[in-house]
Specification:
Blueprint (H helix, E strand, L loop, with lengths): L10 H28 L6 H20 L7 H8 L12 E2 L2 E2 L5 H16 L1
Antiparallel strand pairs: 1-2
Helix pairs in contact: 1-2, 1-4
Length: 119
């Protein structure tokens, strides 16, 4: 018997986690920039304070949303900079545009993928 796939995380909870990760990334970047202005040495606080925790959260989100294979979450965060780099026509499937501007768009893609994998 095939196990049904589902996402146990609501859209609201998923978006809250992704949006908080974005805020954390922004704060880390601001801290790195401020410290770099004070010194000739460039700083990367995320490397030793946050990376392992952020990766753990992302890996859990991938498991919960069945995104381990497709890695839409990491694509959205790292390649599209939390959707800031997305432009119309940037991502298409079967000739249709796939919107990926914010965490709600990402959640919709993940849920659609779960539904497709069920059938």
């Amino acid at each position: 018997m095939k196990k049904e796939r589902e996402c146990i995380l609501s859209e609201k909870d998923f978006c809250r986690v992704i949006d908080e990760l974005e805020k954390l990334d922004d704060k880390i970047e601001n801290m790195n920039s401020a410290l770099s202005e004070l010194s000739e040495v460039s700083y990367n606080f995320s490397g030793f304070l946050f990376d392992s925790h952020i990766n753990l959260i992302l890996n859990l989100l991938e498991l919960i949303t069945h995104d381990v294979e497709t890695q839409w979450i990491k694509y959205y965060i790292y390649e599209l900079n939390y959707g800031k780099k997305w432009k119309k026509g940037y991502i298409t499937f079967d000739g249709e545009d796939i919107k990926l501007k914010n965490s709600k768009d990402l959640y919709k893609i993940l849920i659609d993928n779960i539904r497709i994998k069920r059938t």
